[in-house]
Amino acid sequence: MILYHNPQCSKSRQTLNLLQEKGVDVTIIEYLKTPLTVDELENVAQKLDLEPRQFMRQGEAEYQSENLANENLTRQELLEAIVKHPRLLERPIAVIDTKAVIGRPPENVLTLL
Q: Model pTM?
């Protein structure tokens, strides 16, 4: 399982702990240190079965300053905004095979097991 993780986030830490308690082999990607590409984000979006705006942290300052609430923005523009400002990516996101879930609450990841 891949976990897009922010160690500063309590929910992300709780999710990682839950997976480790279950004995899941987890590959941790600290997306703030290693931002995803547009293609990787598109892949995650498909596995989440969500539109980019649905897995963006809309309360972040960048969301406001970049006017990302604008309904005229394309999918590509939203994905590029996440690449430019990785803090916008909701966290944590767990990915396994063809599925992904957002770990809010952390127990959501158990649906992938």
A: 0.95
Residue range 2-112, CATH number: 3.40.30.10
In one letter, which amino acid is 61? A
Half-sphere exposure (Cβ direction) of 28: Cα atoms closer than 13 Å: 13
Query: Can the peptide bond before residue 86 be classed as cis, meaning omega within 30 degrees of 0?
Result: no
Contact 105, 10 (CB under 8 A): no
Q: Where are the domains of the chain?
A: 2-112
Phi, psi of 60 (to 5 degrees): -70, 150
Q: Are strands 27-30 and 2-5 parallel, antiparallel or unpaired?
A: parallel
Nearest to 58 by CA among 37, 32, 28, 78: 78
Using one digit for the tens of pLDDT, what is the confidence trace for 91-101? 999 999 999 99
Which residue type sits at 38?
A: V
Query: Residue 42: which residues within 8 A CB-CB, separation 6 or more?
Result: 79
**Active-site residue set:** 9
